[in-house]
Amino acid sequence: MDDIVLSEYKDLLERKLELETELQELVQGYISKKAIKGNTYCYLQNRVGGKLTSQYLKSEEVDTVTEQIARRKECEAELPKLKTRLSELEQAAGLLGKNISRQLMLLKLSTGMDSLTAEQKKQSASFAGAMNAVEGIPVSEQTARDIVAWQSGNKPFLSIFEATLKRYGFSAEV
Q1: Given the DSSP bridges, would you call strands 30-36 and 51-57 parallel, antiparallel or unpaired?
Q2: Does 107 lie in the same domain as 35?
Q3: Residue 68 half-sphere exposure toward CB, CA atoms < 13 A
Q4: Directed axis angle between helix 157-167 and helix 98-110, to 10°?
Q5: Considering Cα of 80, then 83, then 85, then 87, what sign does the dihedral take?
Q6: DSSP H or E run through 74
Q7: Nearest to 76, CA basis, from 36, 141, 16, 164
Q8: Do 104 and 118 reside in the same domain of the chain?
Q9: Which of 24, 134, 164, 173 is the most buried (most CB within 10 A)?
Q10: Residues 77 and 130 in one domain
Q11: 157 burial via Cβ count (<10 Å: 0-12, 13-18, 19+)
């Protein structure tokens, strides 16, 4: 039962990340049409900071923008359903035991780390190093090597996360 919950939870987290990433790339707003001197012009309109903005669309852009707006609506409709199901699985895990709840938490905290760009991984590692320095906790040599391997795409983030937790006496294997 635990494996089924873990598998579904992981799949849903990955799908949620895909949707959120896709939403960042899709246009926002709606298309309005204005007739000026017998010609019809299309504009992409949306609100930015409470202010309505309009962007003229060339005729060859209208179909692409229309498709993106439709896709955005689909993604926005799917996202709440995914979040609800993730919440249901978290509640079920709570009933199944602390171990599976910890495993779900690890998945949730580490999802998306492997899909960061090289620059984002570098910034993440730099920030983590700065936080360790502030806290006065030196990074172990093994963790430092693991982070370099993660940054180069040779090691999954979750494995580093789990190993570090174990090193500090926490156990929650996924």
Answers
A1: unpaired
A2: yes
A3: 16
A4: 130
A5: negative
A6: helix 59-96
A7: 16
A8: no
A9: 164
A10: no
A11: buried
> The tokens of 151 are what?
């940054």
pLDDT tens-digit profile of 8-46? Answer: 999 999 999 999 999 999 999 999 999 999 999 999 999
- Phi and psi torsions of 172, nearest 5°: -160, 80
Helices 59-96 and 98-110 pack at an angle, to 10 degrees, of 160
pLDDT in tens, 42-90: 999 999 899 999 999 999 999 999 999 999 999 999 999 999 999 999 9
Please check whether residues 30 and 104 belong to one and the same domain. Answer: yes
- Could you give the 3-state DSSP secondary structure of residue 49? coil
Answer yes or no: do 97 and 127 share one domain: no
What pLDDT is recorded for position 111? 86
Higher pLDDT, residue 27 or 114: 27
Token digits of residue 113: 């780390």
Q: Which tokens is 57 given? A: 């669309």
